[in-house]
Amino acid sequence: MIRGIQFKIPNKWGYMLKDILKNIDLADYDFEINDDNEIWVENNEQLFVEEIIDGEDFNKQISQNPYYIIFANIHIYKIGFKISKIKTYKEFLDSECEIIILIIDSINVCIYMKDKEKLDKIELNAKKNKFKNIEYITDENDNITMLK
Q1: Of the four, 7, 10, 44, 106, which is 20 to 30 A from 131 by CA?
Q2: Which H or E run contains 17?
């Protein structure tokens, strides 16, 4: 079974989250920015300062100024849905969370999604941006055990 998609992004300043999420209507979602995020903008400030951001604010923040991602752990929910702590893939499936974005060591992106149509859009964005090593995350190759 397909759980999501993984790929590598360039290790540089830019608009990577915007590029990854292009063609997804972000206004339909609330974004939970977990503690283990390190996304920097100029002047050594973090990109996100709030724990919960609505889709319009999230889109504005990822589109205005370039940023550098070291780690990201972002859980995306339909507006008004219950936010819960997710530690395993099963908890993700049982939750109201729609998308989880994990970025590790600046380049390794893992995205877990419940909606195959949106997953196809993410894959297309990855190909258009010439991201490397694009492959589906499946039951057999999923090596992420904790989604924290």
Answers
A1: 44
A2: helix 16-21
Residue 144 inside a domain? The answer is: no
Split into its structural domains, the chain has a count of 1
Residue 79 lies in a domain: yes
pTM above 0.85, yes or no: yes
Over residues 3-53, the pLDDT tens digits come to 999 999 999 999 999 999 999 999 999 999 988 889 999 888 999 989 999
Q: What is the Cα 49 distance to its own chain's centre?
A: 17
Q: What is the pLDDT of residues 44-94, one digit of tens each?
A: 899 998 999 999 999 999 999 999 999 999 999 999 898 988 888 889 999
Angstrom distances, CA of residue 58 to CA of 46, 79, 83, 93, 94: 13, 13, 17, 24, 25
Which residue range forms the structural domain that includes residue 16? 2-138
Nearest to 71 by CA among 43, 38, 45: 38
